[in-house]
């Protein structure tokens, strides 16, 4: 296990399971964590030696984008009551593992504009397809996208990727995903909203032949901080029963 | 822009340029001016490193943008106990660069990357600043003190964005050996560079 310290510092572990195991090991081994810190600083020096001045326009683009990106609050220890309810949620849910890994997985937020464009693209394709019965959903999707307080988050996760767009004023979120492999009839993808109180189903997802799903609109659950996708028996489950394929930080207002 | 009614944060020096660690604390409070200073300090290293890994200039600009926006977004999560601010920023950017090359990776593409990568000249000699040139000189000397296998394992991983499995396949060396060489190579590099532990 310890031998992985170098590969870890170089970001050369490409297996998520192995990465988690090593990080778990690190959290219980102060000496290893200390070594990894030194090796990560060393790897950084490799990067510094490669410095190249970026084009000036990049600075302007970045300064413009940060004006539209909400900052994360600091990590704080949960209050006793939340810790209590979270640990009971963890006991009954395989999502427990991920809640601890959220900071790493949270590293995926793209500009709202990009996500909205993706969603609108999906909506447009569907409209062209003339699927009348889906127009009601389209209107709901459009209402969320047009809300003044719309926020989005996107995560690639291996082959699968997802985007969630949320409007707190509308009390709704829209979720789309791609790269979802087809499942046997006995199985379905299920979307969850997860908070300190545990997970609540946000509906079943039916990917088309190319792994895309149509936008799914659901009401936001108070306190939900994360959305996730799991594979469940056909018809869905009360609570997630498998490890999630996809996890996204739900943007807060 | 800092609100008018708030005094400048404590300890902000007037003459000496602020450290990246301090700037990040101000960025965490939404200080755009501090972020501009962060940008000035990290944009060159981030862009250059990303360019080494990704190679394509337009994509490297995108990855640099993603990484720096992430620095803005997550500044409050930076924990000085866990390493220097520069290491934190470069880690974010390096992970992003690797995500980019791994997701774009097809067999042919990977071979192109191997072909373009010269482990004996691990960085392009285009450094514009004196500091970067000094850093390169020191690093070149220290990399010269590694065994070939240590140097190749470390540089294929860091500059090539290879996983240790890929390095093992590429160099036809057992997995366990590659893991060990990455670790002892970095340790030797750390000691040669005098990196604080």
TrEMBL record, chain A:
Q: Which InterPro entries match?
A: Anti-sigma-K/W_factor, Anti_sigma_zinc_sf, RskA_C
The Anti-sigma K factor RskA C-terminal domain covers 111-244
Name where it's found. Cell membrane; Membrane
Q: What is its main location?
A: membrane
GO MF, one example = sigma factor antagonist activity
Q: Which GO terms describe its cellular component?
A: plasma membrane
Q: Which Pfam families match?
A: RskA_C
One GO biological process term is:
regulation of translation
The alphabetical list of record keywords is:
Cell membrane, Membrane, Transcription, Transcription regulation, Transmembrane, Transmembrane helix
Q: Does the keyword Cell wall biogenesis/degradation apply?
A: no
What name does UniProt use for this protein? Regulator of SigK
Automatic annotation (TrEMBL), chain B:
Q: Which Pfam families match?
A: Sigma70_r2, Sigma70_r4_2
What are the RNA polymerase sigma factor 70 region 4 type domain coordinates in residue numbering? Answer: 137-189
Q: Which GO terms describe its molecular function?
A: DNA binding; sigma factor activity
RNA polymerase sigma-70 region domain: from which residue to which, for each copy? 43-105
Identify the keywords attached in UniProt to this record, alphabetized: Sigma factor, Transcription, Transcription regulation
What is an annotated GO biological process for this record, any one? DNA-templated transcription initiation
So what family is this one in? Belongs to the sigma-70 factor family. ECF subfamily.
Name used for this protein in its record: RNA polymerase sigma factor SigK
Organism, per UniProt? Planotetraspora phitsanulokensis
